[in-house]
Amino acid sequence: MNKPHFALSVIGAFSLTLLAGCTLEPKYQRPALPVASNWSAGNGADTRAAQDIGWKAFFNEPAMNQLIGMSLNNNRDLRVAALNVDTARAAFQIDRAALLPTLNASAGETNQHLPGGLYSTQTSGPVTYQQYSANLGVTSYEVDLFGRVRSLRDQGLETFLATEATQRATQISLVSEVASGYLSLAADNDLLKLAINTANSQNKSYDLTKRSYDSGISTSQDLVQAETTVRAAQADIAQYTRQVRQDVNALTLLVGTTIPQNLLAGATLQQDWKFPQTPAGLPSDLLTRRPDIIAAEHTLKAANANIGAARAAFFPSITLTGTAGSESGSLSKLFDGGTGAWSFMPSINIPIFDGGVNQANLDIAKDTKKIDIANYEKAIQTAFREVSDGLAGQATYKDELLARTQDADANQRNYDLSQMRFKGGIDNYLSVLVAQRSLYSAQQTLITTQLAQLNQDISLYKALGGGWKE
User: Fold this and answer.
1) Fewer CB in 10 Å around end: N or C, the chain?
2) What is the pLDDT of residue 44?
3) pLDDT tens string 139-157
4) pLDDT under 70 in the chain at which residues?
5) If DSSP states are collapsed to H, E and C, what string results for the chain?
6) What are phi and psi for residue 133, nearest 5 degrees?
7) pLDDT at residue 50 in the model
8) What is the pLDDT of residue 86?
9) CA 118, CA 434: separation in Å to the nearest integer?
């Protein structure tokens, strides 16, 4: 075997590979921010980012904290997202491996029997040939002169990074959904308790009206009106009982496993709920905070790399195949001197006519990039809207909750006065019923406002990219 000649050929081929550093990918430029440069409301005094406030510190209520921890270990959507990351990582490794030649070792034996007189030069009878070989070879290695393989590697990397960011976005959503689900359960527990207490109070009022009616003091209309309030409260009890059960079912699905009853029994809004303040920073900060925006940008970069691969398809491609080893007619002499053998088969493919396939693929790649730019900009605009909504809620819910609390207190005083006036014979029972209904409605509204305020705190924390770190 002429080993120096083969070695020079291989060295020359690898030199081409080392020189193949060019790429036809367009230079990536991040699209301009399609939103205002500042929020219309909010505070920026705290320099911490929301993503730096771990979810354990933000959701500091023990039962809620434990439920979130359970969901991160058992939720199936999060498990699928993690497996998608593993799949994307493996796919990227395949794309990256294409930049390097694949070496294969092979060994074989060939046996051939020829009948006598088959060839004119054959003077003897039948002949059996035996041949043994052992080789080390490179098969169909593409020299990446125009960056096609490199662009596919870049595309695989960006796809992997996008999938990884999507997993973080899935976790952030899961954390906020579990927290909101627990608060919904707490609110419905409070509404159910309020409905039961109201029904008990209205039952007592009905009994009192019934005795008055039997004594000829109250009218049949008073009795019917008292009964309608009882039936309405009974209907609310059934409604909120159903909602509590549905809340538990929803939480169980999110957590992904059976929830201990002690974690659900004490769910109520009637405690000192206070989440840490989440500084908003600037809209441009979202580009590095929000995993969904990060994922959208990596998807855009993958499309940019795909344009490079599509452009490279217009240019010639060089493929190398070569082997070096030993061949012998005797297994025992396979590695003796003089048995060396090698082959080197470079090939070049030059596109001449493809019916417009390469141009169509390039057009598709360019259009895909335009689509991904639009998706990236929409992700930013969506995030801007969510943060702006959260800041608007942060600025107004405090005042609304104070007004709702004062309204409930005023309705309580009005109800107490109505009862006193009715018992004193000043007013009829209708005024008591009206005051009671108004109080019940005000108390329900107060609970739903408390829930809305806490949910907007969670939404703002999520919108700013919080909920990933522990």
Assistant:
1) C
2) 46
3) 888 888 888 999 999 999 9
4) 1-21, 40-49, 116-125, 280
5) CCHHHHHHHHHHHHHHHHHCCCCCCCCCCCCCCCCCCCCCCCCCCCCCCHHHCCHHHHCCCHHHHHHHHHHHHHCHHHHHHHHHHHHHHHHHHHHHHCCCCCEEEEEEEEEEEECCCCCCCCCCCCEEEEEEEEEEEEEEEEECCCCHHHHHHHHHHHHHHHHHHHHHHHHHHHHHHHHHHHHHHHHHHHHHHHHHHHHHHHHHHHHHHHHHHHCCCCCHHHHHHHHHHHHHHHHHHHHHHHHHHHHHHHHHHHHCCCCCCHHHHCCCCCCCCCCCCCCCCCHHHHHHHCHHHHHHHHHHHHHHHHHHHHHHCCCCEEEEEEEEEEEECCHHHCCCCCCEEEEECCEEECCCCCCCHHHHHHHHHHHHHHHHHHHHHHHHHHHHHHHHHHHHHHHHHHHHHHHHHHHHHHHHHHHHHHHHHHHCCCCCHHHHHHHHHHHHHHHHHHHHHHHHHHHHHHHHHHHCCCCCCC
6) -145, 150
7) 72
8) 95
9) 116
> Using CA atoms, how far apart are residues 154 and 161, in angstroms rounded to an integer?
11
User: Tokens representing 89?
Assistant: 């990582």
Residue 252 tokens read as 């169980």
Q: Residue 134 and residue 279: Cα distance in Å, rounded?
A: 68
Q: What confidence score (pLDDT) does residue 129 get?
A: 74
Q: CA–CA separation, 54 vs 47, rounded Å?
A: 15
